[in-house]
Amino acid sequence: MSNTSESASQYGLTREQLDFLEVIRQMSVEKVAPRAAEIDESGEFPEDIRELFAGHDLFGLPFEERYGGTGTGELMLCAAIEEVSKFCASSALMIAAQDLSSLPIRLFGSDDLKDRWLPKMASGEILGAFALSEPDAGSDPGAMRTRATKTDGGWLLNGAKNWITNSGVAGMYVTFAVTDPDVKFSRGITAFVVKADAEGFRIDTLEHKMGMKGSPTGQPVYEDVFVPDEDVIGEPGKGFAVAMGTLDRSRLGIAAQAVGIAQGATDFAADYARDRIAFGKPINQLQGIQFKLADMETKTAAARELLYRAASMSEGDEPGLGKYSAMAKLFASDTAMEVTVEAVQVLGGYGYVKEYPVERMMRDAKLTQIYEGTNEIQRVVIARTLQ
Ligand code: COS
User: Fold this and answer.
1) What atom in ligand 1 is closest to the CA of residue 142?
2) Ligand 1 neighbourhood includes 103 CB (under 6 angstroms)
3) Measuring CA to CA, which of 26, 49, 220, 263 is 20 to 30 A from 187?
């Protein structure tokens, strides 16, 4: 039993769900791990992994059974993201991004929107994207400039987004735009579903990133893109709350990714230290290395506990979820960064070269401190609950 399964069972995963988790772990070890370095090196979106996940129902994890999902809840989703992230964080991001991009519809969408989009997303036939950030509005999405103006039967969108995960591979982009520039910005924003093949929509640039290279990040551009009224998510003017309510939950997925990266790096460093001989004995017999490994394991376990506590709150609709998901994301991503830096140190010169996965893990970990709200924003969200 992995430490993920062990903790998840204590937070209420059923026998059946634990078995599913074991299948995901096996699949990650056998099929995902051997592809991770190649995916990182080529920077190409791994269609084979997407098919693998679709075949094993991994895209169904965020969804209820009535929409073709697994109906297994938030904790199972987090545990699954964690298992995959131990071996390839870019691949795990496909699942987290499917959660993020479908949450606006799941939480705020009409029945019609749910019926039209969720089954296709649950099967993995369509990947989604969440287009909130802009070149000049990342931490402060209320300052966005993308506009939607009312027209007959719908809206016309104009503007550009930035740093959007799944750019170019998504079939739909949940897009936030200002619909009422006369009111305080956050009150005049509306959420729309924009189809990838809509006229006037294109992806301009794809970024060359430090890490998470198998996940395409780009800049969607909107030029008079028509979106029919029925593709508005929630009420016009209430889009900011749609974005915030989504992020309150989706940040759990990033925390899970960070816990997975941290555990993957700890496991790899521990295995290495068992085999690597220096001064006539395995380096895991040296206290300098032992203390590093002990701290890595402890911090990762603490991050997991906070994450599972937050994930359990999400299932029971307990108040305070936003605060807990921010705390889980903050703590887990800072842990992933610290732990992966230490893993590189344990491997020494081998840690710094691409033959070993820990330098990739370190680069991937960095993004978890930045996306879905920088850790400074998480501290803002947490601090506001203390005032
Ligand atoms: N859930 C629902 N509604 C929320 C909310 C939440 N968690 N947080 C704020 N709102 C509502 C407020 O109630 C307020 O509504 P009214 O205008 O009707 O009063 C509105 O949203 C604006 O709230 P506020 O004034 O607090 O917004 P701020 O601009 O000060 O922003 C933070 C607050 C910093 C929390 C927000 O801008 C944020 O989360 N930024 C980071 C965004 C992010 O994560 N970007 C990453 C890219 S997405 S991958």
Assistant:
1) 29
2) no
3) 220
